[in-house]
Amino acid sequence: MTEAAVRLEGVRHVYAGDPPVVAVENISIEASKGSFVSLLGPSGCGKSTILRVLAGLIAPTAGTASIDGQSAVGCYSLAAHMPQRDLLLPWRRVEANATLGAEIAGIPRAEARSLADRLYERFGLDEFVHAWPSQLSGGMRQRLALLRTFLMPRSTLLLDEPLGALDALTRREMQEWLENVWQSDRRTVLLVTHDIEEALLLSDVVYVMSPRPGHIVARIDVNLARPRRTSDIISPGFVELKERVLEALHMRP
Ligand SMILES: Nc1ncnc2c1ncn2[C@@H]1O[C@H](COP(=O)(O)OP(=O)(O)OP(=O)(O)O)[C@@H](O)[C@H]1O
Ligand SMILES: [Mg+2]
Fold first, then answer.
1. How far is the CA of 51 from the centre of ligand 1 (A)?
2. 74 C-alpha vs ligand 1 centroid, how far in Å?
3. Are residues 75 and 97 in the same domain?
4. Which of 28, 188, 203, 238 measures 20 to 30 Å from 4, CA to CA?
5. Closest ligand to residue 160's CA
6. Closest Cα to residue 22, out of 11, 34, 9?
7. Which domain, by its residues, includes 62?
8. Can you give the pTM of this predicted structure?
9. Mind listing the pLDDT tens digit for each residue in 186-216?
């Protein structure tokens, strides 16, 4: 059996406090190398918590989390993490924001800049390299945060609602674009979303979560041909999968 790129086993996480918050319970998921996997569930079910565990930002209360066979606990350099808020630094221009993660990961600034130069056009930012984040639209900010994540020399990307806060049309365009970007270098992606169509358009596997404390209630394999296009969402195969996801969203552990 090939080692999964991402693996969680029996993960439980309780946030300390009065009262403590049980965020997720008994989460076991995996993503094989080069696959695109989504975590889908209602607000507050613990999706970001799972990514934070994999990013090494929080230690799970119970269970194990690993990336490429190495424990992610206390180790925040195994994957590139795009947090839910884009966290662009307003005092750094686009180019300096783009290279931030790569520089932190140890790539010399000049090299990071030349790597970024090759990506601006693909990320639709080539005319804004010297702009400030405040001069960008919402979609451009998210593309910049994604570019920064893609520039990190990591084989696993943890993307927390990377297309959230976009209007529906822009979001659809960005979904097609994200599929193309992913196809071009085939890194392992774990995507958090609460958009069913987005999950089905992009993923090989969709894990559906219950409301908090989040449990995995279904694992759905998406065997639709790629590349997928927005127009596919009315195809019978897609509609059937969507019904399965909707059904799963009503399941309780
Ligand atoms: N630092 C924290 N301290 C205490 N509770 C927290 C903390 N972070 C998250 N929580 C709680 O844990 C639960 C899961 O939060 P999490 O952010 O993982 O959910 P989510 O599925 O990402 O939600 P959303 O879709 O709204 O982003 C929520 O009830 C939240 O209030
Ligand atoms: Mg979240």
1. 11
2. 20
3. no
4. 238
5. 2
6. 11
7. 1-79+156-253
8. 0.96
9. 999 999 999 999 999 999 999 999 999 999 9
